[in-house]
Amino acid sequence: GIAGIYKGITPTVARETVGVGCWFGAYEVVVRQLMRSQNKTSKADLGPGSIILAGGCAGVAYNISSYPIDVVKSFIQTADVRAKAGAQERPGIASTIRTVYGRGGIRAFYRGLGITLTRAFPANAAMFMTYEYLSRLSIDLRQK
């Protein structure tokens, strides 16, 4: 029913809050460090390699910070499938954390992270590169 649409909303909001904060935070920290090391006064002065590095690091930061929360969210959202195999039908956040931890300790919250990070670096590097260059183009067009 309609409640199914919102199943896992609390961990989803938590994941996005933590992840996006780390995503933009890491991007800005890396950009500022690169500006300092290259004696640049503006983000617009950074070349594509710097933007790629900062964007890739941002994607890695997002996933490392939010992955455990995403695992909990996924367990909650797939409870119906697991219920057919004998698991409890509507697990809460605390019981889900205990279940995941019971399957392998802290490492269970990071199972599959490696492949996610392999995708995260290039995907986020491309996304930030596109954003920065479209933003620069927009500024250039407005100045003309």
Reconstruct the topology from this structure.
Layout: H1 2-5, H2 9-37, H3 48-77, H4 79-83, H5 93-102, H6 113-143
Helix pairs in contact: 2-3, 3-5, 3-6
The ordered H/E elements are HHHHHH
Report, as a whole number of angstroms, the end-to-end distance: 54 Å
Q: How many helices? A: 6
Contiguous low-pLDDT stretches (5 residues minimum) are none
* Overall pLDDT: 92
Largest sheet: none
So what's the overall shape? elongated
| Percent helix range | over 70%
How many DSSP E strands? 0
Could you write a compact summary of the structure shown?
The protein has 144 residues and is mainly alpha-helical. 76% of the residues lie in helices and 0% in strands. The mean pLDDT is 92.
Keywords:
144 residues; mainly alpha; Mitochondrial ornithine carrier protein
Protein architecture, described:
This is Mitochondrial ornithine carrier protein. The protein has helices at residues 2-5, 9-37, 48-77, 79-83, 93-102, 113-143. By secondary structure, the protein is mainly α. The chain is elongated. The termini are far apart. The model has no long low-confidence stretch (mean pLDDT 92).
